[in-house]
Amino acid sequence: MFILHTATGVSKWCWLFVSTLRFTAVYHPLWHLRQWRLGNRCVPLIFTISAAINAWLLWAVTTDSPFCTTMPFLGSYEANRYLHAAEIVWSYLLPICTTFILDARVMIMNPPRLMAISTIQKSSSCKFDYNAEANLARKEKRKRQDGIWGIRKRNWSHGSEASMKAIGFASCPRYRTPLYHWLAITTLNLILNTPDVLLRLIALFEITSLSELLSRPSITIAARSLYFAQFVVNAIYLTSFVFRRNVRLNRGREMTVTSIKSAEITMKLVEQMNDANVRAGGKKRRSKTDTETTTL
């Protein structure tokens, strides 16, 4: 019981962590690029808090009967009720509400600078005619605008490229598809855990109008089956998408690094050849001047 409840809390908060990364990638792209080691600090913290909240199960759960039952913790069942309620809030209610808010903001609402970036992209991708006079007029207008807004453009240039790469995908249907995939998988994972949480809430608060659901073994078995199916979904998603994509990204990064190094080496060779040619030309000129002076 302790391992199951702890794993459930860690799973839900890891999904929330992924939603938080999506939110920061859209609304705070530069901060997101700098915090690439954030998971190394957050995941151990999530595991520690989940284990601390469910630690009471190590003393309260007993297996004397054919099923796992909880004994009164600290001498009363009221403490068990409050601890169960705290575990449900931590492992289900708080993550699902926060995940829904963050994903809704990413999918529905536009970031503050997205409209400005989209207008810049549209203006830069406009089709120009080939009229010479019109092109000259546009160039003169751009020069005047550059002179007026030069300071603003210099301040914008520090983060404009990274922001357009990190934020601009929200307006492009091609790059919105992974967001829909993430949202569908997160929603499925949370839905699979909902029936078991509802049955626990019914038993926890002793709701008499719905207590008949607890007496039906088929409903309980179906709820527990969906509860364990969430771990299967996590395993399939991690092995099929996350790990495979990371391997591809690492290979691509290695290829880009090698290509960059080879390009740097070729540039250095070209510079050395140019320097050698310049030096050779200088020596020839000096030899010519020396011969002319000797003839004179």
From TrEMBL:
Keyword check for Transmembrane: yes
This protein's source sits in the domain of life called: Eukaryota
* GO CC terms in record: membrane
List all membrane-crossing ranges.
42-62, 82-102, 179-205, 225-243
Question: Which controlled-vocabulary keywords does the entry list?
Answer: Membrane, Transmembrane, Transmembrane helix
InterPro entries found in the cross-reference section: Neuropeptide-GPCR
Q: Establish whether keyword Transmembrane is in the entry.
A: yes
Name of this protein: G-protein coupled receptors family 1 profile domain-containing protein
Q: From which organism does this entry originate?
A: Plectus sambesii
